[in-house]
């Protein structure tokens, strides 16, 4: 077997059980990986130097194909209502088949860290079949110093082989596509999908499993920090603006997707950003736009002009989930440490396609836990197959239910306790629609959202006059400089006030129906924080 690159010669691929490989390329940088990827026909180079790859049938994660080994420990600890299981024997068979499938292959290996805090990071080794997947995960996780690589011994090992096809009968899975996790052995097997995001979310899932027991709250959120050290965290599902709004030129970016909150404050799990780039523009998102148009960035499913290879970020013909992955240092004001103090503000983002949520609302701690467990946004036609013309609610517990190995109440209670201990102001921000629901109204102006967030983060919004929303019960500001007053009260932006009332009542009902599964696990104060359609009838 041929090997190239810097590595720990005493702890090679054989320690994972890999054998008879053709070669292994260890810890290669962007230039080498791009060269291998282009030579193999895996990807194209854009006019700006970014590596552009297609992910085939899977243009996003496939949660229904994700499985966890049920053993004596996970049987007791796992949130099985939100996770699927396979037996230890089925995983062992799958693992053996992965190892056999890899024989004769050239693999790319990266030794990386998950977590910017040395006290809580996990040493992660990722073997990939594709060079561009190796560049992707090198970009998204934290890269050790070269001097650390010769002694690197992984705690978590991921092997990612898109050409592997699982056998549902043999392996106990659903289809040929598989993500299988054995927490006892700290192994993740990914096969059948060319979508690179499965790797990064497997690391996140692993940290979500281990960190709560160590007093760290893992969070699916972005984070930034102001000049005075006032950090803020932003929860939100895909398409709500989590990456966009945390990339504020007046604040230092900590990270755009995954963080931990421990005794010393918050810390990034990653070393890169993974931005949704459909309709990405220089005017609206200058930093992300610039980062996506340079060598070292990885574009997924972005359409390139056939003649010029200039990216067309407006073209969603392959998928609405086009993505750009780039190192954090591509953002000029990104943190080099990936760490900050305890947050002063927590923001929950929702792209409300029903157009009834206000652009911003202040939440009590109980309301914050309610909305955190709800994890609301809305899907619209064109974002996923099978969606009709009407918006569809999406409730993803803790803004990340596919990545939660433990019961959601574990994370909800941790967050509530941290909010109380550090006196955190909590906000719900609607980045969705105003003036009507999707198809009638218009998208919330990003300038309005940024103005409201600036006021929330600098503390000036605390002094505003608030009203109590009669549908959701939270506090909504009635006026703010640079923000049209009518937009603060959504009903005033609708022509048909009766239709607004019917739509708001319907959304309240959706919240209540979704939250029914948590009512037995939360206290009376959180149950009382729920939106109440009876208030709307007054």
Secondary structure elements and pairings:
Layout: E1 2-4, E2 23-26, H1 30-39, E3 44-45, E4 51-53, E5 66-69, H2 74-77, E6 85-86, H3 88-102, E7 106-114, E8 122-128, H4 131-140, H5 146-149, E9 156-161, H6 168-171, E10 178-182, E11 187-191, H7 197-210, E12 217-219, E13 221-225, E14 231-235, H8 242-246, E15 252-255, E16 259-262, E17 265-268, E18 272-276, H9 286-291, E19 298-300, E20 303-304, E21 311-312, E22 323-327, E23 339-340, E24 343-350, E25 360-363, H10 365-374, E26 376-379, E27 392-395, H11 408-421, E28 425-430, E29 433-434, E30 442-443, H12 446-457, E31 466-468, E32 475-477, H13 485-488, H14 497-515, H15 524-528, H16 533-536
Parallel strand pairs: 1-2, 2-7, 4-19, 5-6, 5-10, 8-9, 9-11, 14-24, 24-28
Antiparallel strand pairs: 3-4, 7-8, 10-11, 12-16, 13-14, 13-15, 16-17, 17-23, 18-22, 19-22, 20-21, 25-28, 26-27, 29-30, 31-32
Structural summary, described in words:
The chain is α/β, with parallel strands linked by helices. The strands form eight sheets. A nine-stranded mixed beta sheet has the order 1-2-7-8-9-11-10-5-6, with helices on both faces. A six-stranded mixed beta sheet has the order 15-13-14-24-28-25. A hairpin with a 5-residue loop joins strand 3 (44-45) and strand 4 (51-53). Helix 10 (365-374) runs antiparallel to helix 11. The protein is globular, with a radius of gyration of 23 Å.
């Amino acid at each position: 077997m041929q090997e190239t690159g810097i590595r720990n010669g005493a702890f090679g691929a054989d320690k994972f059980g890999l054998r008879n490989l053709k070669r292994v390329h260890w810890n290669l940088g962007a230039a080498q990986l791009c060269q291998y990827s282009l030579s193999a026909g895996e990807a194209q180079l854009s006019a700006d130097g970014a590596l552009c790859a297609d992910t085939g049938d899977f243009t996003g994660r496939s949660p229904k194909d994700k499985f966890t080994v049920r053993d004596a420990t996970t049987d007791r600890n796992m949130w099985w209502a939100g996770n699927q299981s396979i037996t230890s024997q089925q995983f062992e068979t799958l693992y053996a088949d992965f190892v056999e499938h890899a024989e004769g292959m050239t693999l790319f290996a990266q030794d990386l860290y998950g977590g910017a805090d040395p006290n809580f990071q996990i040493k992660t080794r990722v073997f990939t079949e594709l060079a561009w997947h190796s560049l992707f995960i090198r970009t998204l996780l934290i890269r050790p110093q070269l001097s650390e690589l010769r002694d690197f011994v992984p705690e978590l090992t991921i092997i990612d082989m898109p050409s592997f096809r699982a056998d549902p009968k043999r392996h106990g899975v659903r289809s040929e596509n598989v993500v299988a996790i054995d927490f006892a052995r700290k192994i993740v097997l990914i096969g059948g999908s060319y979508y690179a995001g499965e790797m990064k979310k497997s690391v996140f899932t692993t940290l979500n499993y281990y960190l709560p027991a160590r007093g760290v709250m893992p969070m699916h959120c972005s984070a930034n920090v102001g000049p005075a050290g006032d950090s803020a965290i932003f929860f939100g599902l895909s398409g709500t603006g989590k990456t966009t709004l945390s990339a504020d030129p007046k604040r230092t970016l900590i990270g755009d997707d995954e963080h931990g909150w421990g005794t010393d404050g918050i810390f990034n799990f990653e070393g890169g950003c993974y931005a949704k780039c459909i309709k990405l523009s220089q005017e609206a998102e200058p930093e992300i736009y610039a980062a996506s148009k340079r060598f070292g960035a990885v574009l997924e499913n972005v359409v390139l002009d056939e003649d010029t290879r200039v990216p067309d970020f407006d073209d969603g013909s392959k998928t609405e989930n086009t993505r750009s992955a780039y190192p954090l240092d591509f953002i000029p004001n990104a943190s080099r440490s990936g760490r900050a103090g305890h947050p002063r503000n927590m923001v929950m983002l929702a792209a409300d396609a029903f157009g009834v949520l206000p652009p911003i609302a202040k939440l009590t701690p109980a309301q914050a836990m309610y909305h955190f467990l709800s994890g609301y946004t809305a899907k619209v036609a064109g974002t996923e197959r099978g969606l009709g013309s009407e918006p569809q609610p999406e409730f993803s517990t803790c803004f990340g239910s596919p990545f939660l190995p433990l019961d959601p109440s574990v994370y909800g209670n941790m967050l509530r306790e941290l909010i109380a201990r550090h006196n955190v102001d909590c906000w719900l921000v609607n980045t969705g629609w105003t003036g009507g629901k999707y198809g009638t109204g218009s998208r919330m102006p990003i300038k309005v959202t940024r103005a409201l967030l600036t006021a929330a983060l600098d503390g000036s919004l605390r002094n505003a006059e608030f009203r109590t929303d009669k549908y959701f019960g939270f506090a909504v500001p009635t006026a703010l400089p640079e923000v049209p007053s009518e937009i603060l009260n959504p009903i005033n932006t609708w022509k048909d006030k009766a239709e607004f009332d019917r739509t708001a009542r319907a959304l309240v009902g959706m919240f209540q129906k979704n939250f029914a599964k948590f009512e037995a696990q939360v206290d009376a104060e959180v149950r009382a924080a729920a939106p109440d359609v009876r208030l709307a009838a007054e």
